[in-house]
Amino acid sequence: LKQVFHKDKTFRPKRKIEPGTQRFELHKRAQASLNSGVDLKAAVQLPSGEDQNDWVAVHVVDFFNRINLIYGTICEFCTERTCPVMSGGPKYEYWWQDDLKYKKPTALPAPQYMNLLMDWIEMQINNEDIFPTSVGKCKEE
């Protein structure tokens, strides 16, 4: 477990959502819906009066955090030796391109691909132009 929480590994702590903000209230709704056995179709519908972009952003961040936790539990079993290719079964191979270090699609071992992918997603989530955190305070009911 110590390995999962190591700063340089693939686990990233959950992005803090400031209590009292509208996004915090949306996050609480999303969490409650996932833990209550509620119909998933109803759970993901935009609540009345809420901003669609904020609703989607909350779910994107939650999904990223959950995937990170899941990957953290299996990453020790997927090494460059045991997973030399990032694939989606025998028919699909994923190559990395980021237009920075990897200007052309490049075949990478699965752990390296996943680390680059998770870092890239985290950069997008932390980009205030894409996922602003200052969405305002919650409306009082």
UniProtKB/TrEMBL annotation:
<dbReference type="InterPro" id="IPR005301">
    <property type="entry name" value="MOB_kinase_act_fam"/>
</dbReference>
<feature type="binding site">
    <location>
        <position position="78"/>
    </location>
    <ligand>
        <name>Zn(2+)</name>
    </ligand>
</feature>
<keyword id="KW-0808">Transferase</keyword>
<dbReference type="InterPro" id="IPR036703">
    <property type="entry name" value="MOB_kinase_act_sf"/>
</dbReference>
<dbReference type="Pfam" id="PF03637">
    <property type="entry name" value="Mob1_phocein"/>
</dbReference>
<keyword id="KW-0479">Metal-binding</keyword>
<keyword id="KW-0418">Kinase</keyword>
<keyword id="KW-0862">Zinc</keyword>
<dbReference type="GO" id="GO:0016301">
    <property type="term" value="F:kinase activity"/>
</dbReference>
<feature type="binding site">
    <location>
        <position position="83"/>
    </location>
    <ligand>
        <name>Zn(2+)</name>
    </ligand>
</feature>
<protein>
    <submittedName>
        <fullName>MOB3B kinase</fullName>
    </submittedName>
</protein>
